[in-house]
Amino acid sequence: MLNKLIEITQAGGDLALEMKREPQTIKSKDGSNWNYATQVDGEVEDLILGRLREEFPDTPIVAEEQDEHTIPGGTFLTVDPLDGTIPFSNGFSNWGTIIGYIEDGQPRTGVMYLPEAKTLIHASQGHGCYINGKHIRLDYQRPLAQTVVAAELGPWVPSDAWTTMAALRTRCRWLGGSGFAAASLADLLQGRAGVYPNFNAKIWDFSVGALAVTEAGGVACQPNGNPLTWNEINMQAVFAANEQLAREVLDIIAQS
């Protein structure tokens, strides 16, 4: 399965990169100026869904641009055709394509592909995390005071999370990084960032990243410290390069 997911994820990301050179049409999903899709999101998702249905016809798919989102059971595929639509449509490079496979309620394998960064990340349960074919293990030694905390600072961040973000701002080296799930998780896995908290995302944002981080020796959990669960569309998570950073950030969240 993994080889097929790699092939399909790369095909989707490469199509998006090719289409990025042309003018984009933008359509808001809910009337806001930030929750929107371009025609690229739809065309890339169509390509990916077509390929997945050919290869895995009996496996349900939960994809971002579908009209309805429900968890179909314990085993399904997750698809984010263009994670980081805002940076993509504004000319930035911090976007990617994500496909994950959840079996019996747990992420088992998946791929994140960032075409402009030339970064291909894949992970499988019990078989490790790989970046561009190289097996990686996190060996992050810096304390929180010297750590970049990858953060999304958009209007979708819940109001009650801003207290936590403000507290983190005073405890870390920089609250920033690349933003958005695929790019932020790539930052963490490559040692540029040590922590990535996200308080408003979807299952397709996290399924591959959580597996990749844990297979690389890091931590992925809910903001209250509980294990992540994969039976809901809406999710929050904290990703950290090691247990110490995870504990510190979880304490800050609890006190905020």
Explained architecture:
The protein is built from seven helices and 14 strands. It is of the alpha+beta class. The protein folds into two domains: 135 residues, Fructose-1,6-Bisphosphatase, subunit A, domain 1 (Fructose-1,6-Bisphosphatase, Chain A, domain 1); 112 residues, D-Maltodextrin-Binding Protein, domain 2, CATH 3.40.190. The protein has a seven-stranded mixed sheet with strand order 3-4-5-6-7-8-9, with helices on both faces. Strands 12-14-13 form a three-stranded antiparallel sheet, with helices on both faces. The longest helix has 18 residues. The protein starts with a helix and ends with a helix. The relative contact order is 0.14. The model has no long low-confidence stretch (mean pLDDT 96).
**Whole-number radius of gyration?**
17 Å
**Total number of strands:** 14
Main beta sheet strand tally, sense and closure = 7 strands, mixed
CATH class category name of the largest domain: Alpha Beta
Residue fraction in strands: 25-35%
Q: Strand order within the widest sheet?
A: 3-4-5-6-7-8-9
Corresponding CATH architecture of the largest domain: 2-Layer Sandwich
Q: What is the CATH homology-level superfamily of the largest domain?
A: Fructose-1,6-Bisphosphatase, subunit A, domain 1
Helix content: 25-40%
> How many domains comprise the coordinates?
2
Shape: globular
**Structural class assignment:** alpha+beta
Average pLDDT, to the nearest integer? 96
Low-confidence stretches: none
Number of helices: 7
Distance, first to last CA: 42 Å
CATH topology label of the largest domain: Fructose-1,6-Bisphosphatase, Chain A, domain 1
Question: Would you list the SSEs in sequence order as H and E?
Answer: HEEHEEHEEEEEEHEHEHEEH
